[in-house]
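User: Hi! Is it possible to get a structure for several chains at once, not just one? Here's what I have:
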Amino acid sequence: MKYFVDKNGYYGEFGGAFIPEMLHYNIIEIEHKYKELITSDEYQKLYKKLLKNYVGRPTPLYFCKKYSDQYNARIYLKREDLNYTGSHKINNAIGQALLAKKLEKKKVIAETGAGQHGVATATICALMHLECIIFMGEKDIQRQYSNVIRMKSLGAEVNPVLSGDKTLKDAVNEAIRYWINHPESYYLMGSTVGPHPYPQMVADIQSIISEEIKTQLRKIEGHPDPNYVIACIGGGSNAAGSFYHFLDNDSVTLVAVEAAGLGLTTKKTAASIHCGTKGILHGSMTFVLQDKDGQVIPAYSISPGLDYPGIGPMFANLFVKKRVNFLSSTDEEALLAGYELTRLEGIIPALESAHALAALKKIPFQKEDVVVITLSGRGDKDINVYNKFFLKLSNNESNT
Amino acid sequence: MNQIHNLFKNKNKNILCIYFTAGFPYLNSTEEIIKILQDLPVDLIEIGIPYSDPLSDGMIIQKSNQIALSNGMNISLLFDQIEKIKEKIKIPIILMGYYNQFYQFRENKFLKNCKKSGISGLILPDLPVDIFLQKYQNIFKKYFLSMIFLITPKTNSSRISMLSKISDGFLYIVSSSSTTGSSNSFGEEQISFFKRIKKLSLDIPKLIGFGIKDKKTFDLACKYANGGIIGSSFIQSLDKDKLKKSIIKYIKSIIFDY
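Assistant: Yes, the chains can be modeled jointly so their relative placement is included. Here is the combined structure:
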């Protein structure tokens, strides 16, 4: 367990809880209750039961025949897109909503970028009769409107965030500010970011993904460990869940794919590991896109779930310790990879997941390599962006 | 002994501390605001270093931060501006910023600059206590700089006691669980919190902040603590075109008999 959080909430030199005193009580309360809850049989039983009967887990581990031929390896997709609500975010929403219930909270707040975490939170709040307020950047509201409609239909209040760059980072800021003003609410954070214990909590809860991968591979391949696990990374919840049970096994190569946006050298990027420096964002020490004065630079990516100017502290440590290989994919590479999967396998991936798929072109696989890529969500929400790109592609093809 | 200690040695009640954002309303207004404030019945000045992500701040201060940043304010420039007038500054000055700014500027360099510019204390609301104790407490002492910690109605008594011991100069009492500029008025909950703190007889001066916006709330702060800190409502009152006039008018509204 050398890559996991220490008793003070740090992953090596990263993590911690850099929060104003106004949140101290809430954070301590969550930390204590979470420790108690995670080890309780009652919680585990209820969590697993909901995952099975409400979410539809285990999600399939799908062998991609054509994809495997194309990339000369045995490629599997971990189909988190087939979860109820359309992404891996529902795992975390359930786990934390149970904690909110245990803390006797009546109101849940959450931030969202692509809307997937917002939809998952709104869903579980409807199920558990909790008031739900979602903070979403105004720019993201426009980009992912179908998810806004879903959240509202589920009874959530969607608060447009007008501060900063009006995207995910600003939605987190506003959610934290709201939490300071309404400490009676529970903040259901969607990724492995934020002050301790959130990064640990989200990673623990999402570890169901790698737990299932191991079980499924044992059955299909006769061995629980693949050669590669590949996942896209913004804050890191999907990657943390995919890597969790493989972290201490060095024979498994772990690849996290950041959103390069228009390119790593363009300053229009979301690649915090590649382009960031050590600093504090949203309560934890990590890698941050920032200037020399520590002012946070807005992240850019075509994918609203990845345009976050930081990364979970667990990954900052995994990068420094060289346990995870960090690659990046540009907007265009992701769109092409999404197009390829759609046409080869009939699966439209979320733009976030398409970044992970684009990495297939960058890794020199051996023929017998077993490769697992987590498809974190489905691309219905991104269909307009894809459509525009596909039209452009076919126009270009017909002109040549 | 730094200037904050001197202040409380000579005056222990009705302390008025004014917060404003460096570089707001315009890039060079910092110097002007300091000079105007110190000629008024203001005892202490807290200068906010503008930040892109000020988590503890409400809309008014957030907006002033954005404007200050777009005006071109940064930490080096702020230190230069203060150092230039340090001989003329008669009252203690505290800087307020977020830990990331302090960390990126390199902590030692930041503290040396504070000393050089005549700054008396710092407020870094998101700096964890254990990190302060392990990494910085001794350097603060070396430079005679005060580190001011915050307490809120949710802070339990043992933590209040611990924070009052490591805080230097004064203890910052956040009136209610809120971001800056959010409180409407002091209700029963706030008053009972102030009474609780008063009963603890802590061995350090106390200033109440968050929610002080007029004479009534300032007078209440003075009743239960050594004084009060005003930020958002002062910033809101600043008139870019009539800076001096607007500041005088505002301070007069707080201290009637001036």
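The first strand of chain A starts at residue 10 and ends at 11. Residues 5 and 77 of chain A are 28 Å apart (CA to CA).

User: Great, thank you!
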